[in-house]
C-alpha cells in the first residue's frame, strides 16, 4: 500500500500547467491513498478524480481544502473544525477523516493543514492537541495514518510532541534518518518567492498510529513532485511525501 500527501497550492501561479504535472505524477506514483490540501473548488475536485482515474473521491467541503483520492471504498467520513485559530488568519483549520475498507480490513486516514506562520508554534501546538484527540476518537482499534501540511519542521514542539511524546511514527524519518527531506525548498521558485516568510524545511508529513495489520512494515518513503517540467513549471509550491508499506 502507498500513501501520498501534497499541498496543491490552490489555483495559483500557472495552475493548469501545474496540475498537468500532478496528474502525470499520480499515474507514475500510483498511490492507493492520496491526501491533498488546498483544493477549494469542488468542481475541480471532481475533475481531479476523473482525470486521475481514482474510483473514490472524498471531500470535506470547499472551506477546508482537504480531499482524499482512494482506491478503497470509504465507509465513514467526518471533518473536524478546529477551535484553535491564529490571530493572523481570517479562516479556520480542519482535520478530514475517512475510514476505508481494504478487502475486509478497515483503515483510518486523517488529512490536515495547520497554521502557517513560523512564529506560531503555540497555535500549532493547540491544533495538534485537537488533532490527536480526534484521531484517538475515530481510529478505535483500526490502524491509522495522519498526513498533511503541518507547517512545522521536525524539531518544532508540535512535531516533537507527536513523534517523541506520543510516539507517532514519522514514516519519512523512519526510512531516511537524518535526511532533512525538504518539502519547502528554495530550489522551487514558488517557494523561494516566499523566502522572507518561510524557511527551507520539511513541513509535510505522513505519520502512522499502528494498532494492527496494515502498516506492519515501512518499505520506503521519499519526497515526490519535486522536479520541474522542461518549461520550468513546478507541480506546486510544496513538494509531497509518499510512503510505501
Please give the share of residues in helix. 25-40%
Q: How many domains would you count in the coordinates?
A: 1
CATH superfamily name? Endonuclease/exonuclease/phosphatase
Based on the coordinates given, report the CATH architecture: 4-Layer Sandwich
* Strand content bin: 25-35%
Could you say what the CATH topology is called?
A: Deoxyribonuclease I, Chain A
Number of helices in the DSSP assignment:
6
Class inferred from helices and paired strands? alpha+beta
Tally the beta strands: 12
| The CATH class | Alpha Beta
> What is the 3D form?
globular
Termini gap: 5 Å
Mean pLDDT across all residues, rounded? 96
Q: From N to C, what is the helix and strand string?
A: EHEHEEEEEHEHEHHEEE
Description:
The structure is a single chain. The protein is an alpha+beta fold. The protein has a single domain, classed as 4-Layer Sandwich (Deoxyribonuclease I, Chain A). It contains 6 helices and 12 strands. The strands form 2 sheets. It has a 6-stranded mixed beta sheet. A 6-stranded mixed beta sheet has the order 5-6-7-8-10-9. β6 and β7 form a beta hairpin. α3 packs parallel to α4. The longest helix has 19 residues. The radius of gyration is 17 Å and the shape is globular. The N and C termini lie close together (5 Å). The mean pLDDT is 96.
Amino acid at each position: 500500500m502507498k500513501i501520498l500527501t501534497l499541498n496543491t497550492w490552490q489555483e495559483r501561479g500557472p495552475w493548469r500547467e501545474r496540475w498537468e504535472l500532478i496528474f502525470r505524477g499520480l499515474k507514475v506514483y500510483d498511490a492507493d491513498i492520496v491526501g491533498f490540501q488546498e483544493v477549494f473548488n469542488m468542481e475541480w475536485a471532481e475533475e481531479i478524480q476523473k482525470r486521475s482515474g481514482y474510483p473514490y473521491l472524498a471531500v470535506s467541503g470547499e472551506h477546508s481544502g482537504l480531499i482524499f483520492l482512494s482506491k478503497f471504498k470509504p465507509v465513514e467520513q467526518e471533518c473536524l473544525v478546529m477551535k484553535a485559530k491564529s490571530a493572523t488568519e481570517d479562516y479556520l483549520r480542519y482535520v478530514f477523516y475517512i475510514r476505508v475498507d481494504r478487502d475486509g480490513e478497515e483503515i483510518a486516514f486523517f488529512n490536515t493543514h495547520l497554521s502557517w506562520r513560523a512564529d506560531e508554534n503555540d497555535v500549532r501546538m493547540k491544533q495538534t492537541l485537537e488533532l490527536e484527540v480526534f484521531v484517538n476518537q475515530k481510529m478505535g482499534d483500526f490502524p491509522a495514518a495522519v498526513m498533511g501540511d503541518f507547517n512545522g519542521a521536525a524539531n518544532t514542539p508540535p512535531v516533537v510532541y507527536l513523534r517523541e511524546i506520543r510516539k507517532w511514527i514519522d514514516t519519512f524519518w523512519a526510512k531516511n534518518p537524518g535526511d532533512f527531506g525538504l518539502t519547502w525548498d528554495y530550489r522551487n521558485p514558488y517557494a523561494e518567492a516566499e523566502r522572507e516568510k518561510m524557511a527551507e524545511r520539511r513541513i509535510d508529513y505522513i505519520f502512522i498510529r499502528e494498532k494492527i495489520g496494515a502498516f506492519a512494515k515501512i518499505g520506503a518513503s521519499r519526497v515526490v513532485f519535486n522536479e520541474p517540467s522542461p518549461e520550468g513549471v513546478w507541480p506546486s509550491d510544496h513538494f509531497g511525501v509518499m510512503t510505501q508499506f
